[in-house]
UniProtKB/TrEMBL annotation:
Keywords: Signal. Residues 1-30 form the signal peptide. It comes from the Bacteria. This is Integral membrane protein.
Amino acid sequence: MRRTARLLTGTTGAALAVAAAGLLASPAYAGEAPGPSTAGLRMYPSSVAPGAQVSANTAACGEEGTAAGDASAVGAGRFTLAPSTHDGEAIGQFQVPPSAQPGTYEIVVTCAGSGRRVTGDLVVTLTPDAEQVVPRGSVKTGVGGALGPDPAQTAAGVTALAVAAAGGTWLLHRRARGDGI
C-alpha cells in the first residue's frame, strides 16, 4: 500500500513538472496587444438595415488616398474611396440595397497606387441599431431572485425559512440531549 502511494506521488510530481515546463516554454509575445488594425477597412455604421447608407474608411492606402471599393457581396456594386480630411485616410460611401438579406458581408478595397487589398465586415440586420430592442428587467421563468416585485411574498418566504430553521435546530438539540423525538 505504501509503495503504491509513493509511486503515485512520484508520477503526479512528474506530471506537474512536465506541465510547468510546458507553461514556461510557451511563447511570450511582446509589442502591440491584439486588436483591430488601424490599416484595415472600417464600416460606419458597422451594422445596418437594408437600404441604409454606409461609409467605408481605411488608412491602408497611405498618402495617395484613392482606392476602388467592391461591395458586390451585399449587392451594392463598386464604389470609389477618395482622400479624406484625416491624414492618410480614404473614405467612400455606398448604399445597401433594400433587397439585402441579413448576414455578414465582406467588403473589399484595393488601393490605387500600391494595389494593396484590405477587407472589412458589414453586418446587415432586419432593424438598424437605433431601432433594435434591448431586453430589460428579469426573465419571468418562475425560478430565480429572492426579491420579487411583491414584498408580501418575499416576507412570507423569509418567515417560512426562519420557522423551518428554528424547528430544525430545536429538533436536533432535543435529539442530542436524548429526549427522543
